[in-house]
Amino acid sequence: MATLKDVAKEAGLSVGTVSRVLNNRGYISEETRESVHRAMKRLNYQPNEMARSLSRQRSSMIGVIVPNIAHPYFSMLISCLENAFHREGYEMLLFASHGKADQEEEYVRACVSNRVAGLILCTGSVKTARLRNLGFPVVTFERFLNDADAGVECDNYGGGVLAAQELISAGCRNVASIGGGGDVSMPADGRQEGFLEECGRHEDVRVHSFSCSVERILDMEYLPEICRFLEQVPDVDGVFANSDVIALQVISALQKKGRKVPKDVRVIGYDDVLPLNIINPALTTIHQPVAEMAEACVMIIKKASQGESFPVRTIFHVTLVRRETT
Amino acid sequence: MATLKDVAKEAGLSVGTVSRVLNNRGYISEETRESVHRAMKRLNYQPNEMARSLSRQRSSMIGVIVPNIAHPYFSMLISCLENAFHREGYEMLLFASHGKADQEEEYVRACVSNRVAGLILCTGSVKTARLRNLGFPVVTFERFLNDADAGVECDNYGGGVLAAQELISAGCRNVASIGGGGDVSMPADGRQEGFLEECGRHEDVRVHSFSCSVERILDMEYLPEICRFLEQVPDVDGVFANSDVIALQVISALQKKGRKVPKDVRVIGYDDVLPLNIINPALTTIHQPVAEMAEACVMIIKKASQGESFPVRTIFHVTLVRRETT
DNA sequence: TATCATATATCAATCGATTAACACACCCAG
DNA sequence: CTGGGTGTGTTAATCGATTGATATATGATA
Asked: Are residues B102 and B13 in the same domain?
């Protein structure tokens, strides 16, 4: 494996010069630059990132910790993050906490050991105090953590309001919200809040709410909650599900009970994650601009690394995507 | 940030001894070991993985390159890989090639630069010659690449046979296979092959086959192909889709044409990826043991790193999971 | 008593790149 | 002809851990 030294020798230059070419520092003539690049190509030189990171005291990796990689929402988020990383020259170190606090902390430590450029936390059971003085910026994604450096969210409350308006204007008068309300407080709780408050503004609308435990979010099995809910409110005519995954299972359960969607019951989801919306009937949902949110996380880390100022809290608008279930 | 030296000083020992504790080498008394651990805890020491990797000439990361992170099949695979990595003490460096050969090569180079312990390729457009002498083992996942060190697949041909048998024994006599047959040859093509050959063994069964371009696999939009197919074979009574994502869209398209699943048309998918199978009607599909396959990839890399011998080709059995669409 | 296994220290090189200090050119402009 | 900008070389320290050589000091064992 060729080293910088080998490249220098091959090009008949000093390591200092070659390093300057690699890092675009100081004075370099066009001729030298090209000669270095030719030498690198001839030797098939690949800079040793370990050595660079050691020297620079910082790697070009960003740590990402999510609760569950296979969940469509997180897999889409990871995908968007990967795009943004690529664009900005970062690499992704990915971990899944499975909602376990100890595993989460282990992964935070792994990030420290790897001297990452930053950490994006989409999981919130970490003892926040452990995030202080890590040596790199920590950004939370749709979570609250006091000791993080910044947070990126979507307008969850507004999304809940949009959902309520859609159901009510479609004629629903006996609606329910399902999901959220776990034991840890998170931004997504705002969805239910917005939904309930908006419904409260309409006197003729009855509203119910059901919460799911966090474990459900991990294994994506909401059926017990959904069945309990359908038994308690058999005549529901509008459902706001906290996520598309829940919404799909609601539709499935309704259809099994012989209730037609959207004729008998209208359903609206949250997230707008493919491929869940390709199915029949296509799900009306609240669209989160995940790509932009991912981009924002990366830019915050980039700015923080360069000592520039960055927003502590970034909140994105959500939009209603009307399809076939409302 | 505390270093090994600081720990040594804090514990009143030499760096050599502390290093021996960290790496479990040579003679260490229980007393010393504990004293080192106490000192590490007191200083909140986190070993610098960059320095370790530089010194060892190898990091504890494994590179993973997939075509598309958000595709349910790959997100499940990534999730399973992450579990296996965690169990074996590796970390994941994740990349998405989006099917672009140049991006793929760029990511292979990134893995070289990061001196990964191994690379898992779930994407196959790389010029195979570029995989020679990378300095770490390369394992392909459901791909063919001559220059890789090992490959892990499932019994695609057998899966196709199972699907055919299921449809035929359910009474289908005019069946179709959809998906596969892209421009690059891959193991998954065997599904169609097995399906067609098994159907060929039954004289009274008519069989059709349709292929999808690779781009479809990336954006998960198969509707054009599916509609074309449904027009050409309007009286189809059994469909074998090359993946669950395709199967769902087939069901969706059939329902829109007023054809009932499974009454009029039986459908069977491939992969068995949640949450696609939670929907209604629940999809009958061919189950791939992705977790075991992921595990196999990791063990191959582990064995190769330790100089032990490993299987060049590992093929896993698949099973039929009968649900509601057949 | 001699030997061996255990346990630790000291020292220094090494991994591969970054970077600062300093020196030496050259060329151009004032 | 002199000062300043440009371009490059040399040298050496540094980042933090690994590792081998060598030395020393216990005990226990033969």
From this structure: no
At A12-45, the pLDDT tens digits run 998 989 999 999 888 888 888 999 999 999 999 9
- Nucleotides on strand C with an atom closer than 7 A to protein CB? 6-12, 14-21
- Which of B115, B286, B98 is CA-nearest to residue A53? B115
CB of B12 lies under 7 Å from some atom of strand C? yes
Which residues is B176 bridged to in the sheet? B208, B239
Cα separation of B179 and B216, whole Å? 9
Residue whose pair of structure tokens reads 């909650």 in the numeric block: A225
- With a cut of 70, say whether residue A126 has pLDDT above it: no
Which of A79, A109, A113 is opposite residue B69, by nearest beta carbon? A79
Backbone φ, ψ for residue B236 (5° rounding): -60, 140
How far does the CA of residue B204 sit from the closest CA of chain A (Å)? 33
Are residues A35 and A63 both part of a single domain? no
- Residue-number span of the structural domain to which A9 is assigned: 4-47
Residues of A in contact with B251 (CB under 8 A): 279-280
Q: What is the mean pLDDT of chain A?
A: 91
Distance of C1' in D16 from CA in B69, Å: 35
Answer yes or no: is A40 within a domain.
yes
Nucleotides of chain D touched by protein CB (<7 A): 6-12, 14-21
Number of separate domains in chain B: 3
A54 inside domain: no
B14 touches strand C (CB under 7 A): yes
B32 & B66 share domain: no
Mutate which: A45, A56, A62, A75, vs B, most B CBs within 10 A: A75
- Asked if A1 lies within 8 A of B135 by C-beta distance, the reply is yes
pLDDT of residue B112: 96
CA of B29 to C1' of D29 (A): 20
* B124, pLDDT greater than 80: no
Specify the CATH number for the domain of residue A29.
Answer: 1.10.260.40
Instruction: Look at residue B274 and tell me if it is in a domain.
Output: yes
Across B101-111, average pLDDT: 92
Contact predicate A291/A256, CB 8 Å: no
A174-178 β-sheet, strand order = A206-210, A174-178, A238-241, A266-271, A284-287, A319-321
What is the rounded CA–CA span in Å between residue A166 and residue A320?
A: 8
- Name the protein residue, with chain letter, whose CA is nearest the C1' of D16: B51
Against a cut of 0.90, is the pTM above it?
yes
